[in-house]
# Entry
Amino acid sequence: MRGTAVVVGGGLGGLTAAVALRSVGWEVVVLERAPEFGEVGAGIGVMPNAMRALDALGLGEAVREHGTPRLPGGVRDHRGRALGHLDADELERGGRLVAIHRADLHRVLRSALPADSLVTSADVVEVEPEVRYLVDGEPVVLEADLVVAADGIGSRVRSRLWPDAPAPVYAGTTAWRAVVDFTGPLEIGQTLGPGTEFGVLPLAAGRVYWYAATLSAPGLRADDELAEVRALVDGWHEPIPALLAATDPRAVLRHDVHELASPLPGYARGRVALLGDAAHAMTPFLGQGACQAVEDGVVLAAACSDGASVAEALARYDRERRPRTQAVARASRLVGRVGLGLRNPVAIGVRNALMRSVPAKAAVSGMTRFSGWRPPALSARPVGDPPA
# Structure
């Protein structure tokens, strides 16, 4: 069927769903609670699976223009000793990872939507039996054949329609992120230290996205977060010190990592579908959180494109997305436990020895377990054409 869809939440997952639904003929309105559309954050690694989804929407090349040049990648211990390394050809064997500033990716997605479909300062108060929201305190009512709840890990739609669902929990990790200008030689890199990791993702135009994460009690904050990171990785190998030296303290973001540790029994109820973090917020240790939201949007549109009823389409969406996203969430949690989750020197030594013993071919095979996903076919109508 075709109809009218309301997307609650204008983040990466919500915008992807809006673009994908429009591409198969739906009229779409996106309701964003913030006063303007935009993405708060630093960089994001768009894994090959999500890049294929963006290619299916005709947006992949625009993302690549803003993203990572072709580079090798590797994992090291905090003293700089290699635990695994792949040259550019090997790294791209399962598809190319593209790191991009979140704001640039958000802008690419917005560019595929008409301005009048994007509504800001929209405080959604109800989605059943109709969508009701407030703008400057004034109520607005929308009729919708489909509602997509893409309102994040603290989803109010989820809490209303799935009242028995467990709340998000703290995952035991706090993280820092920043984007800096940096011209030195770099590769895509991850460094594992006791209870801590540091990642480097070069972007386009001489910018670099770095992140650090460590085991921590929740809610801790410092007046100078950059100084906290410097102390955390003191004595670690280059280019980590140089990147931190190039970082403006005001550019550093910090957040505690939360997840939906108890999987939901379903992602659809009535005409409402949960998407992205609202459905399956996960830890970041596989770099798949936002990528799974992008997948969600394309699969939802495919399910809504073949003449089925909304109920049938959402049942298909749930069948296809719930097992995969919950498997990714479990795997990400496990990777965190054997990555920055290790503090014991003996356990770290065993892990590092095992990582060094893995051949490049096996490493690539492991990487493609989730990144090898390919999107379903969508209709041929180009993105940006008016709905039929």
The first strand starts at residue 4 and ends at 8. Confidence is low (pLDDT under 50) at residues 380-388. The domain at 4-70+95-169+260-337 is CATH 3.50.50.60 (FAD/NAD(P)-binding domain). Residues 48 and 142 are 36 Å apart (CA to CA).
